[in-house]
Amino acid sequence: MNHPLRNLIRNKELMTSLANTYGTPTYVYDYLRLKHNLNALDKSLSQHFNKYHICYAVKSNSNPHLLKNMLSIIPNLGTDCSSPGEIFVSEKAGINTKHSIYTGNYESTKDLSFALDKQCYINLDDISSFNRLKQIGLPDRISFRLNPGFGKGSFSGITTGGKNAKFGIPAEKIISAYKKAKNAGIAHFGLQCMTGSGNLDDNYFVEVMSAIMYHAKKIESELNINFQFISMGGGFGIPYYGHESTLNYNSLFKKLSKIFYDAFSDKKNAPALWIEPGKSIIGDAGFILTSVVGLKKSYKNFIGLDAGMETLMRPALYGAFHQIFKVGDHGKNSGTFDFTGPICENTDRVAVNREFPSVKEGDLIAILDAGAYGYSMSHNFNTRPRSSEILLNGNSHQLIRRRETINDIFSGCDV
Ligand SMILES: Cc1ncc(COP(=O)(O)O)c(C=O)c1O
Predict the structure, then answer these.
(1) Residue 266 — pLDDT band, cuts 50, 70, 90?
(2) I need a labelling partner for 29 at 20 to 30 A (CA). Which of 212, 217, 249, 264 fits?
(3) Residue nearest to atom 2 of ligand 1 (CA)
(4) Confidence class of residue 265 from pLDDT cuts 50, 70 and 90?
C-alpha cells in the first residue's frame, strides 16, 4: 500500500527547505492527514452509534499545537490522560477537561487530586486506587478499568490486558469494585477496557467488545446500575509495514455496534461508546526528517543518522518497524544496512538489516509513521537535546516546538 505521505517525501524541494530552515532531526506533521484521520473516525462512529465520544490519547503525542488543531476539527474532543501533565496540556490547548478521562495506574493521591480538580472522568485501575481516592473525596461518577483476562498488541510490550498485564481489574474482581463504589454513594458509572495497542484485526476488536458487553451486563444486573458510557480504549492499529492494510472503520464499527446494541435492547437509553485513540489519529501523520551523518562498512554496513534511539525509541524498545525512504527519488536498493544514530548504546538502531539504496553524507532521509509515541517517548540520553517539531499544511509550515538546547537540559540544575 502506498503510504499517505509518500508523495510528500518525494518533494525534495520542500523537504530540503524544511531541513535548511529548521535543521535536522526534526519531527514533521501533516495537518491534512491529521484532519483526514479524525474526520474518517468521527464519520464512521456517527453512522453506527447513537452516542459516542472521542478522547484522544495524549500519551501518543502531547504537542499542544496539534491538540489545538484536533479540537478545531472535532469541537467536543476530549482527551485520555494518564498523568497530571497530560491533563495540563489538554487544558493548555483549550480542551474542556470535563470531556476528558483520567486513567492512571498506581496513581498517587496528588495525581488523583489534580484530575478531580480539573473535573476529568476518573477511571480507576484497581480497588486500592478507589481507597486512595476516598481519602481526598469522591466524585459522583466513576469508572473502573477491566482486565478481561486476555489482551493483544503488536508487541508484548504494548499488550495491556491478560495475565501478564499490570493494568486493570481482573474479571473475577470487577463486580466487587463497583459494589464498593456503589456502597460508598457513587451514583453514576462508566466501564473502561483497553487490552492492547496496534491491532489491525477486526476479529480481535469483536472479541474485546463481546467480553466488555458480557461483563457490563453482568455488573448492571447484579448491582442494579446503568452505565453512562463504555470505553473500549484505543488500540486501533496503523500499517507500519507496506504490505499491511488499514482498518476499515465502517466494517469494524458496524460489527461492534451490533454487539453493543444487542446487549442494550433499549437503543435510546444505551450508554455512549467512548474510544481513546492515539496511534490511529497522529501515527501516520508524522515523520522524522533526518540527515545521513556517516557511513561505515564494518561486519555490517551502517548508515549513521542524526536521529537515533533518543529521537525515536520504538525500534530499540519493542523492535518496532518503521518504513524509511530517501527524500526525493528513492532509487534502487544496493545493499543491506543497519540504520543507527549517535547514541553510545548498541541498542541504538532505527532499523536493522534493511535493503536500501546507496546514500551519501548529507542526504535527507524520512522515517515514516513517527507521529505517535515518537516525540512523546524521545529523551535526553547522552545529554542530547530533543528535536524540533514542525506542522505542515500544504506548502506552508510552522515551528510548533523549538529544538531543545543543552542549556534547557540543565535549566533545573542551579550549580
Ligand atoms: C488507557 C489507554 N487508552 C488509550 C491508549 C491509546 O492507544 P493507541 O495509541 O494504541 O490508540 C492507551 C495506550 O496505551 C491506553 O493505555
Answers:
(1) confident
(2) 249
(3) 233
(4) confident
Q: How many CB atoms neighbour CB 414 within 10 A?
A: 5
Q: Grid coordinates standing for 6?
A: 509518500
Distance CA 314, CA 370 (A): 9
d(CA 102, CA 111): 10
Mean pLDDT of 340-363: 98
Dist. CA 103–CA 377, nearest whole Å: 19
Superfamily of chain region 6-28+283-405: Lyase, Ornithine Decarboxylase; Chain A, domain 1 (2.40.37.10)
Quick count: other Cβ atoms within 10 Å of Cβ 232?
Answer: 21
Domain ranges of the chain: 6-28+283-405, 31-281
Q: How far apart are CA 263 and CA 270, in angstroms?
A: 9
Residues carrying an active site annotation: 344
Q: Check if the beta carbon of residue 68 is closer than 8 Å to that of residue 58.
A: no
Mutate to test the pocket of ligand 1, among 100, 107, 197, 249 (most ligand atoms within 8 A of CB): 197
- Using 50, 70 and 90 to split pLDDT, how confident is the model at 268? confident
Distance 278 CA to ligand 1 centre (A): 6
Q: Is 289 in contact with 364 (CB distance < 8 Å)? A: yes
Task: Assess contact for 390 and 369: CB atoms under 8 A.
Answer: no
Burial class (CB in 10 A: 0-12, 13-18, 19+), 207: middle
Lining ligand 1 with CB less than 6 A are: 57, 60, 80, 103, 160, 194, 197, 233-236, 276-280, 372
Assigned C-alpha cell, 358:
546507496
What's the CA-to-centroid distance between 277 and ligand 1, angstroms? 6
Predicted model pTM: 0.97
Q: Name the residue with the closest Cα to ligand 1, atom 12.
A: 234
| CATH code given to domain 31-281 | 3.20.20.10
Query: Distance, CA 100 to ligand 1 centroid (Å)?
Result: 14
Distance (angstroms) between ligand 1 centre and the Cα of 233 equals 6
* Residues recorded for the chain: 415
**Which tens digits make up the pLDDT trace of 23-75?**
999 999 999 999 999 999 999 999 999 999 999 999 999 999 999 999 999 99
Q: Which atom of ligand 1 is nearest to the CA of 237?
A: 10
**What pLDDT, on the 0 to 100 scale, is given for residue 118?**
98
